[in-house]
Every structure is written in structure tokens, then in C-alpha cells.
Amino acid sequence: MEKWDLYDRHRTKLEKQIMRGDPMELDEFHLVVHVCIFNSKGDMLIQQRQPFKHGWPNLWDITCGGSAVAGDTSQQAASRELFEELGISYDFRTIRPHFTINFDRGYDDYYLIEHDIDLTKLVLQTEEVKAAKWASKEEILKLIQQNEFVPYYESILSFLFEGRHHYGSIRL
Fold first, then answer.
1. How far apart (Å, rounded) are the C-alpha atoms in residues 91 and 80?
2. At what angle do helices 154-162 and 137-145 cross, to 10 degrees?
3. If DSSP states are collapsed to H, E and C, what string results for the chain?
């Protein structure tokens, strides 16, 4: 079972932890991370969720994501999730998330990195990942329309592709 650190509404870590699935108080939140890897051609590495995975079984998803466990920084959680799900080692210590999306029960940090990966060298986590492939923005949006991709807002997917080379929301 995973243990999570809890945070307040200002993202200050509380001196409290819970087990995944335990109820949180209304003023308690937890940390989630997502990593999006793009190759030098501008395609995103996406993964297909296992059919027995809770939440969006069999659907395609962005590169990787998951909850930070107790003691993890955002960067440590991103590194751990990427290695656990796809067998990719990447050092996040010197980078910060490109953006954070607040959701009902927490904070979701997004990391956007460019890294050419040989798909044959991936080590898929059998408990979570069924397959992986490179996909363009257009291919992902088509998968969303066909209900074959986790139903992210299309504008968020577009932002991932547009914002991958710099921080902020202004074109430079």
C-alpha cells in the first residue's frame, strides 16, 4: 500500500500522511506527477493502460503519471514513476515542473522533456502498462475523439505540445 504526504491548500506539507484510498479531510491534498516525453520529431511517447487497471482500462495515456509517495519530492516522484512504468532513467533534480494543475484532491505537476527513446529498450510495468508508442498531437486528438485515450481536455494536450520547449504560457 502507498503512503501519501498531505498538503494544505497553499501546498505546504502537513505533518500528516495517509494510506492511498483512505479519506482525506476537505482541507487536505496530495501530490501527483505526470511526465510527457517528446522525441526530436515532436511526437509524444504514450502508453496504453492494462485492461485490469482501475480507471480508464485499455485507454492510451500520456507518457506516465502517478501519485507521489511519502517522502517524495515532485522531482523524485517523476523519476520513480517514469522508471517504474517504462524503465526510463531520467534525472529531474535540476528541473521544475512546466506547470501544475490543481484538481479536487491535490496538485498535479507536469514535466515536459525531449528525449529520443528506443521503444525496444522500454521495460513496461506489467501491472500498469500494456503497450507504448510515439504519437503526434493529431493522432492523440483522434484517439480522444474515438474514446481510446484518457479524456484530457484537448486544449491541455495542445498546450503540452506547444509548451514543451519553454516555461510559461507566452510564445517566445
1. 10
2. 170
3. CCEEEEECCCCCEEEEEEECCCCCCCCCEEEEEEEEEECCCCCEEEEEECCCCCCCCCCEECCEEEECCCCCCHHHHHHHHHHHHHCCCCCCCCCCCCEEEEECCEEEEEEEEECCCCHHHCCCCCCCEEEEEEECHHHHHHHHHCCCECCCCHHHHHHHHHCCCCCCCCCC
CA 110, distance to chain mean position in Å, is 6
Place of cell 498531505: 6
For residues 164 and 112, the answer to whether their CB atoms sit within 8 Å is yes
Which residues are 3's β-sheet partners? 19
Q: Which residues pair with 4 in a beta bridge?
A: 18
- Taking the complete model, does pTM exceed 0.85, yes or no? yes
Q: What is the pLDDT of residues 100-157, one digit of tens each?
A: 999 999 999 999 999 999 999 999 999 999 999 999 999 999 999 999 999 999 999 9
CA distance 112 to 128: 21
Measured between alpha carbons, how far is 162 from 172 in angstroms, rounded to an integer? 11
pLDDT of amino acid 172: 73
